[in-house]
Known about the structure:
Oligomer: single chain
CATH class: Alpha Beta
Shape: globular
Strand order of the largest sheet: 2-1-3-4-5
Amino acid sequence: MTAPAPLTPSVVVLDDEPIARALLRRFLTKYGYRPVEAATAGEALAALRRGPVDAVILDVRLPETLTGLDVLRMLRREAPLATVPVIILTGAVLSDEEEREVTRERGFLFAKPESLDVLIKFLDQLLGRDQPQ
């Protein structure tokens, strides 16, 4: 009898920059994740509500009404999504209040250009995965 194949964790990636999404897609796929790309907060929320989702990586600054922080706030108030790990990956300088909000909403802050290796190791730890070396 063979063991069932491990499920591929899905990660919603919200970034308005196509190049950033493509880079994260390639990297996440390489390390055994299934990225679900979103260019807008609305697309990200729709993907999250369709589920299942294991983690979220969001940018803060988006060229629309909703920001990544708005998405984080909304997730924390929706029962099935409230416990999904959220990583804020941004090149923006956040105000002290924004940083406190990320902490208050149980998000994890990474500054671009953070090493993607560090990001993957952190994501693996969040999801209890061991990556082969």
